[in-house]
Amino acid sequence: MLENLVRPASKKALKRLEGKGLRVTNTTTLSGFVTSRSKRLFELLTDRKEHPQNLLADEALENRVRALKVVNDSAERAIALIKQFAGAVKDEGQRQYLLRVVKHHRSEVPKRTKAACSAFSL
User: Fold this and answer.
1) What does the alpha-carbon distance between residue 107 and residue 109 come to, in Å, rounded to a whole number?
2) How high is the pLDDT of residue 28?
3) CA 99, CA 85: separation in Å to the nearest integer?
4) Residue 78 sits in which domain range?
């Protein structure tokens, strides 16, 4: 994996892994996703620009990495939002109406960025 840190990132390298165009097989390993851009993770976690090989024995770094939580933010936000809506509306008819309004607004603003939502007007 450390050898891949000098491998340049391809032009098609994604900032975030998405299912589109991603080829994962039974032989794909974690090191296949490591490129020179992966060094940035070590820089952010340690505030130092050393080679990651020198950081392997750093106990503070190991503790930081072990404390990181892997989350699916979009799924967790969606679940929290629907729970909040479901708790706010007791009448089933009103709940269905509210869900239809949300669905309509989501279709009106297909690109859900902050700028697109800010530009949307009723």
Assistant:
1) 5
2) 75
3) 9
4) 73-119
> What residues have CB less than 8 Å from 11, skipping those under 6 apart?
none
Residues 6 and 15: their CA atoms lie apart, in Å, by: 17
Q: What is the pTM of this model?
A: 0.38
Does any domain span residue 57?
A: yes
Confirm whether 29 is domain-assigned.
yes
**Residue 109 CB contacts under 8 Å (≥ 6 apart), including other chains:** 116, 117, 120
Ranges of residues in the chain with a pLDDT under 50 are none
- Domain membership flag for residue 56: yes
Using the structure block, give the residue that is written with the tokens 């309509």.
104
Structure tokens at 83: 């729970």
3-state secondary structure of 26: coil
CA 47 to chain centre: 22
Residue 79: its pLDDT value, please? 86
**57 and 84 inside one domain:** no
How many Å is the Cα radius of gyration of the chain? 21
